[in-house]
Amino acid sequence: MDSSFLRKFEKREQDKATEKVNSTKTPEQLAKEDADKQEREARPTIPQMVQDPVMSRELGAFLKAHNDPAIQEMGARMLSGKLVSGDVGGLELKRDELFDQKALSEKLSEKLQGQRFEDMLQHSAKLQSLCQAYGKEQIQEILQSGAKNLPFLDQKGFKELAAVFDEVEKFERDVEGPLQAQMTTFCKKFGLTEDAVIKAADEKSPVLRRHQLEQAIRDNMSGWAMTLPKWLPAQWAGQLVGWGDKKKDRLLTPQERYSKYGAEAMKFSLNNPKSKWQNAVEMRSKVLDTSGSFIASFVSENKEVREALGRVINGELPYMKDVIDNTTGYDEAREMLLNESNAKKYVERYKSANKNVDFSKLSTTELDTHMDKFYDEAQKEAQAESAKKSGFWATVIGVLFGSAQERADFTKDPAMRSMLAGA
Amino acid sequence: MPNDNIIQDLRKIVASGTEEQATQYIQDHFQQFPKDIQQRLVAGMAADAAKAELAERMAVADIKSQILSLLKEFDALDKAGK
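Structure tokens for the assembled complex are given below, as produced in the milestone run.
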């Protein structure tokens, strides 16, 4: 078939699809897209950026912040004017990323203040300690200015911070907001005190939370039970669901009810085992029992149980999967350091890649050359490993990577040298 | 004031010390780190804090949705006249 015809057909189908998508957008969305398109088209070209001292410095820092040798080499070729095939496309992509991230970092910086900052303090002992030692305003200023600078300092750190706040916003919009709205509507319809439910759910102490949660559910049970008197003989109805005592009586155990109302009341219950009243109680108790196990384990005081359960729940929910799962602990982060014990795994790989070299017979100068090369390769592998990690300790390891001191410590370390030169 | 040896010292502590020692070192010497490293460290702490907060809010939301599910079941029972 004629390929030009196919192309025309594909284009027409594509246009139709675009038109269909656009027809579902609001005028505001279309106007925003139009403005974004114009802003993109007005962006400076790579040659213009290279000519401008400020933009050139920014682009250089941005490329360096990727901590990716291939991108850094592309930046070096750009500055020396020795671009190779594919560089132009690659640089244009990076230019767009740079402008997008600059805009995003401004917005992010604005968010990191006020209540948002206070909330973060409540969830970070490290931030709290810094604020106590150096002042809250100073730490907030460092965070806000840092958010703007991160695209040029630490790509991984910037993307992580931006991703977390993106998840927070998605969660507020897609989960928390609708859930709250549903809860408000439903509680009103059901006659349940919303305050009691919210208070129960927001309570930080597991013991108090469980108590309040049970209280809220029992309060709810007293609501439907108010209709009971019409099926009960007046004397029992008056006693069981009497004015002013309705809720209290719902909470009585059979023994307590016996003490309060005597044998006659119990006899009534026993003689009418399948009354509507009892059926209702049984069915509701069953529901509480089956759901209660979840609630009980969730509000368990046992920290490990709560954390494990939290991980399961987080794993099931799309918002938490990438955000939480990759956070690196201290010990895991330390394993990425290039020291004697951690470098062992790289030695074998380096030696097998250089099978023609007799490492035991190297001169000092030759060993120096190999140590430099070995360091570069080990560092590249360690960085690739650390790029997959996130969290504060991964950031610390990122700070420690690649300094001149690290190279000197690594290549001049007698233990490292003998490791490479040994059998 | 930035201290040239600060990174080297931190590296030694991370290589051989505990998490508490490393945390304490960062806190005690925070102002001696270069500005860009201060920014990276605080941003790392902020990202962890925001994750912890999000996890907590998700847990609360989950409890709320569990309560809602219960209430819906009660409601269904009432509607069915059981």
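The mean pLDDT of chain A is 73. Residues 22 and 30 of chain A are 7 Å apart (CA to CA). Further analysis is deferred to the final report.
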